[in-house]
Amino acid sequence: MAWKKMKSMVTPGDYYFSGDEAIAEGAIAARCNYYAGYPITPTTETLERISVRFKEVEAVFMQMEDEIASIASCIGASWAGAKAMTVTSGPGFSLMQEGIGHAIMTETPVVIVNAQRAGPSTGQATRVGGGDIMQARWGTHGGIPTVTLSPWSVQELYEQTIKAFNLAERYRVPVLLMAEEATAHLRERMNIAEEVELFEREKKPGAAPFGTEEDDGVPPMPAFGEGEKLLVTASTHDAYGVRKTADSVTEGKLTARLYNKIMNHREEIIEYEDYYLDDATIVVFCYGIVARSSLFAVEKLREEGNKVGMLRLRTAWPFADRITRDIGSKVKKIFVPEMNMGQVVGEIMKYATCDVIPYNQMNGEVIYPNTIIEQLRRLL
Amino acid sequence: MTDVDLKEYLRPGVTLPFCPGCGHRSLLRLILRAIYELGINIDDMLFVSGIGCGGWIASPCINGDTLHTLHGRSLAFATGAKMFNPKLKTMVISGDGDLIDIGGNHLIHAARRNMPITTICADNVNYGQTGGQACSTTPKGAVTQTTHEGNPYYPFDICKLVLAAGAAYTARYLVTQTSEVISSIKKALQIEGFTFIDVISPCPTQFGRQNRLDTTREAYKFFEDRCVTKEDAEGLSPAELEGKIITGEFSNGRS
Q1: Pairwise CB contact (< 8 Å): A227 & B70
Q2: Is the pLDDT of residue B4 over 60?
Q3: What is the pLDDT of residues A228-266, one digit of tens each?
Q4: Among A102, A239, B103, B230, which is least packed by CB within 10 angstroms?
Q5: Where are the alpha helices (DSSP H) in B62-208?
Q6: Phi, psi dihedrals of residue B27, rounded to the nearest 5°
């Protein structure tokens, strides 16, 4: 494994950053050296900060003509050897879906941040939403999974940006960091560590860049200009990139490996945090900023002696199926507050045998702790 | 020089994927010949293509680094690769529908940025791969699968458009003007800026068939009859220029 501990490119210490700024600094810490983007609320601040900071670290910044071009140029740069990133919000994320599919099919490492805002469509640009979580899994056609992270704080936006690059390089996939307007615009104290652990792209001259012996392997990735005479295509292709546009064996083999390389490694990928699960009879399943409200609510109810627990998903996709099945077989009820009309709750229902109760709020506001307390009281 | 000299530039084992009479086969040879004559090491180059018949010229035929992209987005992908590694001599080869219709926005922005990319538009004036529908380069009045009573719209003068957007150099030739095409590709490859060559590459299979151009010869003659040189065009009235295709080199003097 090509893991390497490196000194942070960002001066270590405590900072008072906004989430948008933390994303930019996380990218620099991950040694991202190509950024392409298009202004969009609520992540314009990341674009602006990168435009200044990338000059200082001698990385390439491009303001493109739209989000389609942004993701496209990131894929092009990644194949030229870059660690590439683009940052956007709902409407831009929708425009990027075809590009995300291209990155999945060509196994291109690239990081895409979506600070979700209130939707659908143009919705409320400066207000929060959580309606794109299913889009992260199913937005691009074809249904092949990639990795999606869900941060709940400015600190975690910084750390998960670095993690997103590592996962992208490790599995050669686009990694989606699903932030929310509330964390992107939130300003709070955070810390930058002295060292950062990074996964370096694996190279093996002459090796097949699009195939492995195993049916869930990640091939080494060469770059343009290395004399490999690469055939990079998002058409169905064999291990060397030769297009096989009407061959069912190749299509079956390729799609199985693209699926398996994520799903068979999901135990390594999935991260979650659990709180007060030992004796809990009701568990709140949550992710993103709603998890902060939920934790406040759970602790308040605990103080009153209620057996309430919480599970926070740090990885949205692949879905944490094992722990969900586990908890679902032990507790009476799972409560799922979401800033959408019910998305991850459906996934929980797939695996949990207990009662699963959704709570949906889609009004441009974070679900407040009091709302969650009130809802939980009804279930106690 | 014969075709044999260019074999090393063709990917081993690849059968050229073009229909009988397709101009793209000739265009591939002209591109490789220009590279050969300039003595460029093909491993220093990157070939980027989009979707459609024109997307099959570079990938899989050319034996170098190739990036086959999404429909219309080849210039955006190429921009990322070129900006990150400026040493890659980057050439985009794609069709008119891909570069100009669905990819038109990326085209004018690549020109505006004067991005150092040589763009070859394999212009067959229709969507060949999907069976011959009208696109933004289809001549007015031409019959296609989506304009059965004749195309009601004028086509783009794409060289003029790209030049106005900021390109360093544009040119337009019929693919049968072999020496002109080769010399303009050579010129473009030596310019450190955005260059665009519109190569009219007849499509006897789709466009020819639907416009009753029953032989390959007629499919080519249709365009030969419409081509006028830039110099000759200067003496013609707008009425006389109606339906004409102006060939030659165009520059805004910025290169």
Answers
A1: no
A2: no
A3: 999 999 999 999 999 999 999 999 999 999 999 999 999
A4: B230
A5: 74-84, 96, 104-112, 158-165, 178-189
A6: -60, -40
Residues A263 and A318 sit within 8 Å (Cβ to Cβ): yes
What ipTM is given for this predicted complex?
Answer: 0.97
Chain mean pLDDT for chain B: 96
Going along chain A from its start, the domains and CATH numbers come out as: 3-199 (3.40.50.970), 271-379 (3.40.50.920)
Q: In this complex, which of B48, B88, B106 lies closest to A65 when CB atoms are compared?
A: B106
Task: Give the tens place of pLDDT for each residue, A120-157.
Answer: 999 999 999 999 999 999 999 999 999 999 999 999 99
Distance in Å, alpha carbon of B46 to nearest chain A alpha carbon: 7
Has residue B65 got a pLDDT over 50?
yes
- Kindly report the average pLDDT of chain A as a whole number: 98
CATH code for the domain defined by B19-216: 3.40.50.970
CB of B85 within 8 Å of a chain A CB? The answer is yes
Model confidence pTM above 0.95? yes
The dihedral formed by the CA atoms of A194, A195, A196 and A197, expressed in degrees to the nearest 10: -160
- Region of B141 (left: φ > 0; alpha: ψ -120 to 50; beta: rest) is left
Which chain B residues are closer than 8 Å to A225 by Cβ?
43-44, 46, 65, 85, 87-88
